[in-house]
Amino acid sequence: MIRSKLPTIISCSKDQDSVTWRLDIAAELDYFNGHFPEQPVLPGVTQLDWAIKLGCEHFGYAIDVATLEVLKFQQLMLPGTQVELNVSHNAAKAKLTFAYSDGDKRFASGRIALNGASNTTDAN
Questions:
Q1: Ramachandran class of 116: left when φ > 0, alpha when ψ lies in -120 to 50, beta otherwise
Q2: What is the dihedral of CA 55, 115, 70, 3, to 10 degrees?
Q3: How far apart are CA 66 and CA 43, in angstroms?
Q4: 72 HSE (CA, 13 A, CB side)
Q5: CA-based torsion, 108, 116, 4, 67: positive or negative
Q6: Average pLDDT per run of 10 along the chain, which is 124 residues long?
Q7: Torsion from C-alpha of 94, 114, 58, 1, nearest 10 degrees
Q8: Using CA atoms, how far apart are residues 55 and 32, in angstroms rounded to an integer?
């Protein structure tokens, strides 16, 4: 697991099995340095790390990833944009499903299978 700093969270909305964060992808984030010089792009590993951190924290899981499933990066996430990160969970299977989007534009999505069960009995 990489130790990336989370972006600025603009807003958050929750229901029983999912949560959506509005994120500010500021041009000043260190993750754009050298990735790539001619057109900075937020690395996919950073996007994945944010989804894991935020999802595990919200749903009370330890950050202990077993496998990644159906991981897709559809469009480049550029500096100076805002995106929504939606994470839902399947408690019975200890899996998180995530998607980054902005309206009809999808940036990335996937499913994260975790080792073990939730650390808590209640979601945040």
A1: left
A2: 50
A3: 21
A4: 11
A5: negative
A6: 81 96 94 85 94 96 95 96 97 96 97 77 45
A7: -170
A8: 23
**Rounded-to-10 torsion of CA 72, 84, 46, 26:** 140
63 Cα distance to chain centroid? 13
Per-residue tokens: 16: 């029983």
In the chain, which ranges are continuous DSSP H helix? 44-59
Centroid of chain to Cα 28: 19
Beta strand segments in the chain, E: 8-14, 18-25, 65-73, 81-90, 95-102, 105-114
**Cα(77)–Cα(107) distance, integer angstroms:** 7
DSSP conformational letter for 83? E
Owner of token pair 């001619």: 38
